[in-house]
Here is the input.
Amino acid sequence: MLHKVRLGEFYVCPAYRGAGVGTKLLSSAINYTRNFDGVQQINLTASESAAAALHLYEKLGFQTWGVEPNGIYYMGKFVAGHHMILKF
Here is the structure.
């Protein structure tokens, strides 16, 4: 039984940040996922260096359940990855 969905890459171009685009896109993805029979949660990993993204995920109900040191390679260096979950 499919019980969880993993959200992959999620990116908003700098020109559109602060206009609510990220909130609308992520909300649409969450609502779409809720229609899958048996799905009870969405998982994702967010870069520690992406404070705005972490804030957005938390605003929409995601919670960090673990932090992986050096979990993401970004812009030539390793950063922690925040493993997050949204339960329905």
Q: What stands out?
A: The first helix runs from residue 21 to 34. The beta strands are 4-6, 41-47, 63-74, 77-87. The chain has one domain: 4-87. The chain has a mean pLDDT of 94.
